[in-house]
Amino acid sequence: MNHHSNRPLAPLPINVRPRLGETTIHYVQRLARANHLKPSYLLSILTMPSNTKTDRVKLDRLATLSGRTTDVLKNTLADTAPARPTRVYIHTKATIRIEQTASSKARSHGFNIVGQIKEDARRNKGTLRQIADKWGLPRWLIRRILSPHFPERTSARSTLSERLYSQLVGYHEQGKTAYQAWHDLFDNQDTWVPVSSLQQRFRLLDLERRTARMDQ
Hints:
- This protein is an all-alpha fold and 216 residues long.
- 54% of the residues lie in helices and 0% in strands.
């Protein structure tokens, strides 16, 4: 696909609005499906010239293809801020009040409500209204929480789910490579797992298989 790298980019025919708080990868998936493209194909264009299977999308290329400005993407998508050790936004009296309001009024209570709401938006790709309805909170409050600049005390991201682990074992037993598993998950299962993580998991499964054979 490298022959595309020198072509000037133009907005895709079907415009897709980014949802506040969703990840860049989820937005790429929605943009690709709306325009009848494989997500992996669109991702390869957005990561050129490296053309790697990572989530390091070039924001200027995404802005052009989506018909949005880079500022809109930075203020909407959850993971577009520069990666740096100090990427921790400081709580103010206003943000603390918002966090306390969300914790007291949310339909589901528990630790780290802000982190849970942010993770809900990152994983489930719901609209602002759907997320607000699920948590029983007003949309203005959800909009403030889902801002990429609203501080998050602790990430609510979970480890590998049992369902996904079973899928990876199935791929491995079928003799698929980590790259083949990545393509199926990303293009057909609407699931994002970095190739490096899949390669590490497949190496562990290889080791388990060799150990089991030695014990027989």
